[in-house]
From TrEMBL:
InterPro entries: PsdUridine_synth_cat_dom_sf (IPR020103), PsdUridine_synth_RsuA/RluA (IPR006145), RluA_PseudoU_synthase (IPR050188). Residues 29-194 form the Pseudouridine synthase RsuA/RluA-like domain. One of its GO terms (molecular function) is RNA binding. SUPFAM superfamilies: Pseudouridine synthase (SSF55120). Coiled coil: none annotated. This is RNA pseudouridylate synthase domain-containing protein 1-like. It comes from Asbolus verrucosus (Desert ironclad beetle).
Length: 222
């Protein structure tokens, strides 16, 4: 019984996403978190590890019962995406930061590894993105171009700079610096898939074919 308990505790430590999530900066107004991949921002299951429960362990006094998820999550990263995200510590900071995002005064940058070699080193992708109504079990997005299934589409623009070309697991791959001008759900993933270069490890937008990598190779850099 003791051995089983020890093994269980070791397993919980090894597979805990908290070991990769850390606070990289804190001011009076904001906390900057380096989020691990495969980690939700929040969940209705209080026992599930999320950024919300991470914050409650690190800064329990900052949690507010007046907020649905206790903290000011003004922007989000996908479950599979790792990297930096900003969390305001009070209402005023959230209002200022949210306004800056809405007015596109903030510049966000991501690093991604995609399948194949891009034909151009500079890309300006401007394709509207909407909800893919063919998919019911999950919220999947799509590019709206002359189809009836992509609904409630909105303007979406992504800038891409190729950094390096090489091989990933003996297959051609391209490392890219990405700046999303707009902030649509799954925008980078959808745009990359649309041009025929899905992000390595993106199970959803590779039509469930990309299953070998341990993670999706998309990281919020700045």
């Amino acid at each position: 019984k003791f051995c089983k308990l020890v093994i269980k505790n070791i397993s919980n430590f090894i597979f805990s996403n908290y070991k990769n999530t850390r606070i990289v900066h804190r001011s009076q107004n904001f906390v900057i978190i380096d989020k691990a991949y495969d980690l939700k921002i929040n969940s209705n299951n209080e026992k599930e590890e999320t950024i919300q429960t991470f914050m409650k362990k690190k800064h329990p006094l900052l949690a507010s019962n007046n907020l649905h998820h206790e903290y000011y999550f003004m922007h989000r990263l996908d479950y599979s995406t790792s990297g930096l995200m900003c969390i305001p510590l009070h209402k005023k900071a959230c209002q200022v930061a949210s306004k800056a995002i809405q007015q596109r005064q903030c510049k966000k940058y991501y690093i991604a590894l995609v399948r194949g070699y891009l034909s151009s080193n500079l890309l300006d992708l401007n394709f509207p993105i909407g909800r893919d109504m063919r998919v019911k079990e999950i919220e999947k997005m799509c590019v709206a171009q002359g189809n009836n299934y992509c609904q409630s589409s909105r303007v979406a623009r992504t800038l891409i700079v190729v950094l390096e070309k090489g091989l990933f697991d003996n297959y051609p791959a391209t490392k890219m610096l990405i700046r999303p001008i707009t902030g649509r759900r799954h925008q980078i993933r959808v745009h990359c898939s649309h041009i025929g270069h899905t992000i390595v490890g993106d199970y959803t937008y590779s039509n469930k074919k990309d299953v070998k990598p341990q993670r999706m190779h998309l990281h919020s850099l700045r």
